Amino acid sequence: MLTTRPSVTRIDPDIENSSSRQANLQIERELPWDSSLSVGYIRLRGTHIILSRNVNVPRCSAVIDSNLCRPNPDFGNVSRFEGSGDSYYDGMVVSFNKRQGRWATTRISYTLSKAIDDSGNFFFSTPQDNFDLRGEKALSDNDQRHRLTVSGTFDTPATFENRLARGALGGFRVSYIFTYASRLPFNVLAGSDLNGDSNNNDRPRGLGRNTGRGFDFASFDLRLARRFHLTEKLGLELLAEGFNLFNRANFSVPNNNFGTGAQPPATFRQPTAALDPRQIQLGFRLNF
After folding, report:
1. What is the pTM for the complete model shown?
2. What does the domain layout of the chain look like in residue ranges?
């Protein structure tokens, strides 16, 4: 006879606070023509990260009553929050700065990094094998191998000798930023309960955590501003800003359901959501 047993959620009595240790080293060198180059390395180690796992999963596939195969047969699922997670981050940051006279600046920054952990960013990212957390060690949810940023400003002088040129062109500032980020990993799911923990968030058998790759990201933002002096102490700044100016389709979340068959459905890896399209806004600012 199949008996329904209560499921509980509890906290590990020996839980420890999450902690991290960070080390970094940076070397900066001044270059000719008002420019500089810096190279840095960052190491971040996280321990005792909070995660949730079911410590009362059935250890057999009995047809009559698999609850009898649980470590504690008096309960159903026992979800336990504990500080068992680990994380590792290594990154190299290269930055180049250039100042072109008094009116323009340029900055180029590139990051090469790798993030590894054994727990997801959410509590419901329970392990595939609740009794083997080492099998969850893989690329982190936010592992982004490459990130490039190019930004800068250009100011038109407010001191043109010609009064007409000063009134038409003086006081403008153009600011821009281009960002590119490589693809984030995602966890491939079978869409069914394969390990008997009552959650349909298991991976296909033999597949590691976060083995899927999502979508890259690219965006160009531009800002045009002009300053006016209304009085000695009061200034007005008019603003026009464009975000994702080229209206690139930046997808965010792929369909990660592989299913239980030998081949995934046609919708697997296809985008299910997108980030913001092109946006343009106008505004003003009073300075006093």
Report:
1. 0.85
2. 22-47+84-287
